Amino acid sequence: MRQLLIRRLLQTVPLLLFVSIVCFAMIKLAPGDPVLSFVTPNMHPEDIERIRHNLGLDKPAYVQYFLWIKEAVTGNLGYSLVNHQPVMDQILDRLPATAGLMGSAIGLAVLLAIPLGLAAGAYRGRWIDKLVNLVAYVGISVPLFWLAILMIYFFSIHLHWLPSMGMRTIGVNSAFDVLKHGIMPCAVLAFSFLAVYVRYIRSSTIGQLREDYVQIQYAYGSTKRIVLFRHVMKHVLLPIITLLGMSMGELVAGAIVTETVFSWPGIGSLGMTAVRGMDYPVIMGITLFSSVLLILGNLAADLLYGIADPRIKSKR
Amino acid sequence: MLNRNKKRFSGIIVLALLTMLASACSGNNNANNASPSASGTASATASASGSQPAASGEAKDGGSLILAVAADPVILNPNYAGDRVSLTIDQALYAPLFQVNNGKRTYYLADSLDLSEDKLTYTMKLKSGLTWHDGQPLTADDVVFTIDKILDESQNSFLRGNFIIGGKPVQAVKVDDTTVQLKLPQVAPGFEATLVQVFPIPKHIYENEANIEKSPKNQAPVGSGAFKFKEYKTGEYLTLERFDGYFGGKPHLDSITYRIAKDTNAANLALQNGEINVKYLDPQDVSTIQASGNFEILPYSEGRLAYMLFNHNSASGLLAKKEVREAIGYALNREELIQVAYASADYADPAHSFLTPDVLYQTNDVPTYDNDVAKAKELLQTAGVKNAKLRFIVSSGNKVQEAISLYVQQKLKEVGITVELNSMDASAFGAKFTDPKATDFDLVVGGYIMGFDPDAYSMLFTSDGSANYSHYSNPEVDALFKQGSGEGDAAKREEIYKNAQKLVAEDAAIYPIAYTKTIVAVDKRYGGIEEAVLKPVVIFEDPSKLYVK
What we know:
The complex is a heterodimer.
Chain A lengths: L1 H28 L15 H10 L6 H13 L13 H36 L4 H15 L2 H15 L16 H35 L2 H8 L4 H30 L2 H6 L5 H10 L3 H29 L1 H6 L1
Helix pairs in contact in A: 1-12, 4-5, 4-7, 4-9, 5-7, 6-7, 7-9, 9-12, 11-12
Chain B lengths: L13 H10 L40 E6 L14 H10 L4 E4 L2 E4 L2 E6 L5 E6 L13 H12 L12 E2 L2 E2 L1 E6 L2 E5 L7 H5 L7 H4 L20 E7 L3 E6 L12 E6 L3 H9 L5 E4 L4 H6 L3 E16 L11 H10 L2 H9 L5 E3 L22 H10 L5 E8 L3 H16 L2 E8 L1 H9 L8 E7 L8 H4 L13 H11 L4 H17 L3 E14 L2 E2 L1 H4 L1 E2 L3 E2 L6 E2 L1
Helix pairs in contact in B: 8-10, 9-11, 14-15
């Protein structure tokens, strides 16, 4: 177990290096020049070069990369080219908003997806299955921004139940207020996650129900509910663990569209602004940060697999 | 690079050009933050003309106002603010020395400004008893400090270039606590347009900061404006509260909050829901907001020209020919074009001159080539142009640019010119547009806000101008701009710039489309809008005058 952990952690190093190189290369290959936004018309070419030099952008790309990675290794992700604030601080500043939103959306989606998926799989072709399929198809196909706008229109403008934007009422600092603001973005995101999760659970349930152990349970006289929740669910949980592991990256990268529409002050909207401004230290910071989380998430999922299904552990 | 919320510079801004390109020439560079920015720049813009509502009701004290902004402010220090959001907030947080509207000065921190006989020395008197938000006195020392820091190369202020005239710096000298002298190296009538962009920063706060731009003190700014800094929640909102010691009298509102709303559609809903009280509108959203009956819709001139740029350097070589440029003008119908691009003539006035109506000596009475297809064909024949093909670059997703380019494509087809549209992503578009060597496009839609002094426009139309992206070159025009920048006599200056406008128009250097307007929706519960003066880029010149009815 410990060996596995160490081996996997060591494997992440080249992976992260690779991710950072690809990300850096993509930014550098994209058209545009961050220096241009500092340029004023009456500047002389030497002034422009001075700015380029001050920002370290006059060096060859690979040198810039090495300078960046040297600092990144020590945990210093550099400074934004736009507002000169440390990148790490900006990410950490936005992290609670994003992690809170994504965490509750994923949690809600899983809580709903498990019973719905099990029921749909167990009662294949019946009304519950049709309903779940409908929800899944709608959830996958509906554009999130449209759903978000629709919800704002209905719940804020018409019913006046919920605030339409932001994370807080101006000047109010209470958990309840944040919760109220979070309901709609959380619901929108949960809906999109649910659509994916429920399909997995449904098909996994259908597969499991064909297994011999299920027939044996029935032969022993177990009720359908016991078979589903006590036996089938255990197996069905495995793919969910993988899905959750893969969601770890999103947990910090945020949901760009949802955060933008609801003006939710998370990492997604920070990243959006950074991309538009070619603020590459911020883009790199967010990419690296979410990659680390994604890799750790997958690692955790693998370890949990072992716990959920001891057979897997013994095979390694 | 278009949509960056970065710093840009002093009033007169080439990047404004770009921004506009990106943000659509609609005259409403609002929430697109896609451009977040996008945002224009240019604090030097002057007059707010256009419709303004009559003041009604008694001014009451108390209450708060929520204004939608499209992005986080980049930096709350007026020596560095170049993006629309920072400029808007700084307008309430810091006080300017004076502002200019329709050629008339309104004094803020300054009490008077006099120019010496030889036109080389400005003497500025400050009001007495001025204080900063922390209670410290605001004196001539602060003004001199601010200008010195702008001039200090190591401090990277965007305003620096404007304080260097003919290669030499302007000198700021303290005479006494309320008097500052500004000594110019040479006669420069355009300098007043530079001074309106100066919002002094406090010496006692910043004097020991090695790098003011990166100073943590910008996070809790101390200004001299009508409202002082209260709270900033990144990505959410920034609140300013009333400054009772404001020299212009106690502001009516208790607070102003700038709410960061990145999505225009969602922000429009928040506006209708009363969560936002003031917001920029796109022309196509006006009817929806108006229908609610709760808002004043205020279109006002933004001091901006939207135009079609001809790349005189393009590989096709066609646009270097004056006849072809004229023919293109004749092939188009400006009124139709405005209708197509801006939904209504209410939001854009037809443009003939390259100067916007708020600029000194502007005249729209210049030659224009418009709406005469027969003439267009004749000119093309004279020029020997047959089966011409032009490339039109468009920033993808920019509705105004797309509409204009499609219209132009269709109209030019009628005179036998094929237009190939090349839609590209905003950054690629910006890079192409500003690349002085780019020869692989012929047409592009641009826009600029350049402030109220015509001298600023030299960078666009002189042969070696830093923002002369059309590569237009006419030695006569060059000479006129040079003459105008150093001419102290107003009547002579007027003649010079009127001539320049005529020449540029005759040459069909660009195809001016419209002087676009900004549209702002203000909740009807608020009054004092006329006194607060609607102003390009920053919305309200003096927010202390706003009140709840």
